[in-house]
Design goal:
mainly alpha; Ferritin; 0% strand
């Protein structure tokens, strides 16, 4: 316990061996940009890349204003947003995590230090994979979400390392659950489905690692530090719920006039809080909320 309290990234003794096994699993099957996907088969834009019944405006009065061709286009634009979200986050994580290792050289457990480096390497490959996918699919990147801009550039570098790791985990976990729920059924564009599946293999390890570090942090930090971390995690989580329920930037990317005015805050709020989105979020993010309850965030 004393060693855990002194470490800048505390980890419970029972988790050290499991973190070591995460690194072993990563080394055994490292993700490779050339072979991770059957790039030669291409991407078929005539096939939906996600479930149409999970479009952001599904279940609202706006979806009836779209024909089938427009719904397909919207599905591709929504996937472009999801992929962009991963790119914006995953190209920043290595900067944050390698800097943690550099600043705390010799003060971290060897298991945590190694896995932070492995984690960073995998995020770099994910970023390259997602960028190649957008180029092949002929999709434009969405801009960096407002929630990420300040977090990544100003807030996270100045937080306790464990809190930074938990915040990045919540962002990835929400994004991961959203895409996995919408892309893993038969009938989804094959390369898109496989890309998110392959990404998920690594992300399961990343999420487990961050959860263990988060629980170790809350078990060892002061009450004041715990409350600060809980406030930050709660704010980030609820902002993400809004962003993954509806992102008004999509109106800038469609070839037709999108039925939701991106400047109409009331319309945006109705979509984000629609009964369909509320039910979908309650289902796809249930495991996240259970963990946030466990650590006193919700």
């Amino acid at each position: 316990m004393a060693e855990m309290l002194l470490s800048p990234i505390p980890i419970k003794e029972e988790h050290r061996a499991t973190v070591a096994r995460l690194a072993i699993a990563s080394h055994k099957n490292p993700i490779d940009i050339k072979t991770v996907l059957p790039w030669s088969q291409g991407i078929d834009r005539s096939i939906a890349p996600k479930r149409i019944d999970q479009l952001w405006i599904h279940g609202t009065e706006y979806v009836g204003q779209l024909n089938d061709e427009q719904k397909l286009e919207v599905a591709w634009k929504e996937i472009a947003r999801d992929v962009s979200m991963f790119i914006w986050l995953e190209q920043k994580i290595p900067v944050l995590y390698v800097n943690m290792v550099h600043k705390n050289m010799g003060r971290l457990s060897k298991e945590v230090e190694e896995y932070l480096m492995v984690f960073s390497k995998e995020e770099i490959v994910h970023t390259l994979m997602f960028k190649r996918y957008l180029e092949m699919a002929g999709l434009e990147m969405f801009s960096q979400p407002e929630i990420l801009t300040k977090l990544l550039e100003e807030v996270l570098p100045n937080l306790a390392p464990s809190v930074t790791i938990m915040v990045t985990m919540i962002i990835e976990w929400v994004a991961e659950n959203a895409v996995m729920r919408s892309t893993q059924e038969s009938g989804i564009e094959p390369l898109t489905r496989e890309m998110f599946h392959q990404h998920h293999i690594d992300e399961l390890r990343h999420i487990a690692f961050a959860r263990w570090l988060g629980e170790s942090y809350f078990a060892s930090c002061s009450e004041e530090d715990a409350k600060l971390a809980q406030v930050i995690l709660k704010e980030v989580y609820y902002k993400l719920l809004e962003n993954f329920s509806f992102n008004p930037e999509i109106a800038r990317h469609t070839s037709f006039e999108f039925p939701v005015d991106p400047n109409d805050s009331e319309a945006i709020a109705r979509v984000q809080k629609s009964e369909h989105n509320n039910q979908l979020n309650a289902s796809r993010f249930a495991d996240i909320e259970n963990w946030l309850i466990k650590v006193g965030v919700l």
